[in-house]
Amino acid sequence: MIEARMWRPGAHVGVGLASRMPAGILILCWAIVSRAQTFSNPVVGFDEQFYLLVGDRFLHGMLPYVDIFDRKPIGLFLIYAAARALGGDGFLGYKLVALTFVTATGFLLHHIAKHYVGRSAALMAALFYISWLNFMEGEGGQSPVFYNLLMVGAASLVLRASRQRDPLRCGAGAMPWSASRCKSSIVPCSKGCSSAAGWFFSRYDSSAAYSPFFYTPLSGLF
Length: 222
Hints:
10 helices
């Protein structure tokens, strides 16, 4: 039996366009669509209002933990200070910076996943990450929005190290350390990532076993 199928104009156009469009463009567009609804909302998160205040006061000469205080590490406030230094609306500024971090994290996730699954599945992993942030109070500028990029970057280097000798090996230790400057509670996770990197690198270079980035238990605390 011969089955006749009627061709409909526009059928599969979306699929064809997505298959031809660079993944980075799709990820950026999805991030903008997913997060644009909060751009005009100055009270999307009460924590973020304070982070922005601290960043702004840094630019006016106040000293962290002396003139203005919060329990978070200084890295998070430096990000907000940089966003405020862009000028204009500070609330919009930090959300645009957060958008940049989210897009970069999604692109890195896609880069990692495409080594193990097909292009479409890798792209979906990136898009689901961006979408899921909105369900976990990450639609604004909470600390994971920023440090996730560093942790995913470190994970990417660890995975590369599991396959080959990588000249960027110190980044797998430095990135988790930098991430812990945004939130102290990720120190155990950052040390786990650093230790995994050190173990992989030691297979190619025994000197990696002595790197403070990888094995010093207190390196994530400073």
